[in-house]
Structure formats: structure tokens, C-alpha cells
UniProtKB/TrEMBL annotation:
PANTHER family: ATP-DEPENDENT PROTEASE LA (LON) DOMAIN PROTEIN. It comes from Dongia mobilis. InterPro entries: Lon_prtase_N (IPR003111), Lon_prtase_N_sf (IPR046336), PUA-like_sf (IPR015947). Transmembrane segments: none annotated. Pfam families: LON_substr_bdg. This is Lon N-terminal domain-containing protein. SUPFAM superfamilies: PUA domain-like. Residues 22-226 form the Lon N-terminal domain.
Amino acid sequence: MRPGPGSLGPFDPGFADLPKDLPIFPLTNALLLPGGRLPLNIFEKRYLAMVRAALLRPDRLIGMVQPMEPGADKVLPADVGAADYRPPVHDIGCAGRIVSFEETPDGRYQIVLSGLIRFRIAEELPSDRQGFRRVVPDWTSFSHDMAEHEFQLADRPRFLSVVQEYLKTRQARLDWKGIEEVADDDLVIAMAQMSPLEPEEKQSLLECADLDAVAEMMTAMFEVHSATDGEHRLH
């Protein structure tokens, strides 16, 4: 899925150097794709510990996954402690490397993850003693995420038109100034990650074979939503 030549940075691990275990961050509606960037505001104690642990690793990787039940990451059952709460998650996620880190005066971490490669959860390990979850990732199905290749939208004007209509029906704003200068790969990744799609729809985009499939599926989703929202406004 990785677009464009020279996409792997000098600090990115090679495929053979990917870790055998990975901390995961379950977060509803948070989509990270290979080649994308995801800013995160970390404040919960166990995830502050997760970030500190990731920063000590050579790869600095964190696995982003979505709970099977949207919102399960935000609702803690009354009879379960935070350290013991492990809601089921989708088995496919995306590993991102911490490329930016900042502490805040009120005790939060503001980080940015750079999407590197997707993974399938082969096994969930016991939680770290500080409460964050860890898995054994299977990278083998997604080695192509780290391969370099050119990507070009089949019909960029149509894609932009569909995006514009979808965002208008959702009353979402996008700064279109300079959008013509944005490369096709960056455009598709940004729209997938930033758009107000449902969690299951974003999971479907994550599981697409490549960026061409992401663009095709996202276009279809946008068209369906635009038509449905338009019908609702007529009634």
C-alpha cells in the first residue's frame, strides 16, 4: 500500500527488523494507513506508560487497532478495573512509528504516528504490568505495504468532485486552497483518515488490498452517503 518512491524514511525499520511483539492502542474511529500520519493526545495512565515504553524501543512502533464494538474503548464496566479491561479488537491494525513527541504542562503526551505497515494479530499477550495491551503481530500478509510503487488516481477530478459533495452533505469543511498540489497518494490517505466515516467503514478501508482499492471503496462510500443524505434533506 505504501505509495511513491523513497517513502521509507532513514529511521524506519526494514521488514526483517520488525518486532515480534507490539503494544496496541485500541481507539474507535482512528484510522492509520501506511504512509499516513496520525496525531494523538495521550492522557490515560496506561497509555502514557505505553508511549514511554515505545520510545525506549529501537523501532518506536505502536499498533493502532479498533475495538470490535465501536466506543468500547471509552466505556469501562463498573466491575472491571482499567488494567483488566480488554474489549475485543479487530484482528487487523496498522503499526505507526512515533515521529513526534511533546509533553504538556498538564501531564499529557502529544505524539504523531507515521503509518509503516499493517499487521494481523496472531496472539494477544498478557498486558504489560503498567496496564497497556500487547500482541504478537503477523506481518507476513502485508510486506507489500513497505514496498515502493507509484500511485495515481484513475480519475482525479471525479474523485475530488465526489469528496466535495460528500463533505458538503456532512457539513464538513476542507481547505481546498492548494489541493491541486497535493499528490494523489497523500490525498487518498488524508481523505480516508480524516473523513467522518463510520468506524466499520474505516476498518474496511484499512483492510483493502492496496491504495487503488482504498480509493475505489472510499469513492463508493462517499457516493452512497451523499445520495442518502440528500434524500433525507428532501423529506
